[in-house]
Every structure is written in C-alpha cells, then in structure tokens.
Amino acid sequence: MTKVIQMTRTGGPEVMELIDVTLAPPGPGEAQVRHEAIGVNFIDVYFRTGLYPQPLPAGLGMEGAGVVEAVGPGVTHVKVGDRVAYAGRPNGAYAQARNMPAAALLVLPEQIPFETAAAMMLQGLTVQYLFHRTVALKAGDTILFHAAAGGVGLIACQWARVLGVNLIGTVGSDQKAALALANGAAHVINYNKENFVERVREITGGKGVSVVYDSIGKDTFTGSLDCLAPLGMMVSFGNASGPVPPFSLNELASRGSLFITRPSLMNYTARREDLEAAAASLFGVVGSGEVKVPVHQRYNLADVAQAHIDLESRKTMGSSILLP
C-alpha cells in the first residue's frame, strides 16, 4: 500500500484526501517512482478548484523527485535505482510512490539533492523556456517580472542576473522585496506601497520594458500592458488572481503594436529532445551554483491542505515541498 492524495470533487483545500492505494506494477512505457520530495505549485490550486478541469476522481501535483523502483516493458532511458526528477502531467505527484510515463523522467545529477530537484523542476523549467525560447533575452534587456519573491520569481531573479538582464520585480511586502533583491533583481516594487506602472516608467525613463512576465492574471493584466515599450511582449503565463477577462485587440495596437502570448511548459517540453535540452540548461545553472533553489517551506504529505492555504494566502516565499 502507498499513501496518495486524491480528490473526488473540486473546491477548497478540504477536498484533498489522504488515502491508501495498492500500486500495480508499471505498465508498458511506465516507471514506478518512490518519491523523496514533491513540489507544490500554484497550478495545483487551479486543478483543485476546477479552474483547470480534469476527470474525477483525480490526483494532484505535477513535480517530484525520487528513485526508480521498477520499470515496465519498453523502458530504456531509466532503470531501477536511478535518481530521477520530473515536471508535468499527468497529475498525481502528491503520493509516496506512483507509476508514470517514463518519457517524462529525467536522470538527476548526483550534485543536486532530491529536495532541490522537487523545488525546481516545474519552476526552473518554466524560467528556462520563458527566458530562452518565449523571448530570447540578451544582456542589457530590461524586463518586468511579477511575483518576484515566489518560487518561479526567485529563480528568474537569479537567472536574469546570470544573463545580464535588468529584472524589475513586483512583490507584496518589504520582506519579499529584500529577498528578491538578494537574489538578483535590479529593482523591486512593493505594489502595496507604490503604483507599479508609474514606478516602471520612472525606472526606465519613460521608455517601458521590452517584456512583461505576468503570472498574476486579472489584477495586473492592464497595468502590465501599460509597462511595455512599443513592440514589447506580454507573456501571460499564469492567473493567480483569476483569469484575464476578454479584451479587445485594439488594446495592443493603441499601446504601440504590442505582442502577447499565453505559453505553457507542456507545449515547450512536448518533444523529448526539447525536454532534455531544457533540463540540461537548468541542471547546468543549478549544478554550477549560479542559480540556487532553497526550500523555504516544507510540509508532510498529510498536511497538504495547509500548504495550499499558505500558498493561496501569499504567505509563502520561494519554493514549497511535500515530504512523503
């Protein structure tokens, strides 16, 4: 028997139940992974609430790290005993162990601990594609990154510093501002004290930024557009405050022929070769120490409801993990 988190209905944190299941042997193309650590991300909340629909009953969690305990027929790129990590569908990482498509697994370098891996895979691969593929950032670029003290944000601050990019970050408290600055942000705006649009214009001498990375959604969308320079790119990659409401394309034209995209990690890593390339890039900057991924919150698997409560109330900083 193994313990897993299951939900039979959508709703608040209380819909997540800890149950015992019997884990079958892995099928063709599958591997069985015994988790050492599990990542907690805001996308998990979207699935829990039903914002992102999925068939029920269902598991939650898209990120984990552990050891391969068994492999099914046809699996060749991982073997029993391998240290592995992953990020992506299918949901079900909130578990002591699980069977999953082996094609999603990446062999974890020895110098990267399991907790670090569980904290960085989804968030780190997200920053990798945002900075290298959605927009190929270069030294000297000035960007705006919302939620700069969150798990994705702190990795973004450090990776921007590595690239020579000037990252302006928004945060909700002075404590979070200090954390973002310590991790490489060039400027930080506390949106509870300052108007972030006015402050961005002040920092950039009225020019605006070339790219805005916005995982907040509804509350920051229009302001984010107002921060862009003409021909700038709006990257809306999340909706922590709710989905972006419908808007007219004239909103882009009137601000200087702006571009907009709504990317997803799943699309950027759908091909195995793209997943491996992105992971090699991430493992490289983390393994070298250029980007550090400290775990700021740890919860037992049975306490997953508290983890979601803390995440939704914006009490957390950096990365959170579950320990099975």
From TrEMBL:
- State the GO CC annotations: cytosol
**Keywords, in A-Z order:** NADP, Oxidoreductase
PROSITE patterns, per the entry: QOR_ZETA_CRYSTAL (PS01162)
The GO molecular function terms of this record are: mRNA 3'-UTR AU-rich region binding; NADPH binding; quinone reductase (NADPH) activity; zinc ion binding
**Residues in domain Enoyl reductase (ER)?**
11-322
Q: Which SMART domains match?
A: PKS_ER (SM00829)
Q: Which InterPro entries match?
A: ADH-like_C (IPR013149), ADH-like_N (IPR013154), ER (IPR020843), GroES-like_sf (IPR011032), NAD(P)-bd_dom_sf (IPR036291), QOR-like (IPR047618), Quin_OxRdtase/zeta-crystal_CS (IPR002364)
Q: What is this protein called?
A: Quinone oxidoreductase
Organism field: Rugamonas brunnea
Highest classification ranks of the organism: Bacteria, Pseudomonadati, Pseudomonadota, Betaproteobacteria, Burkholderiales
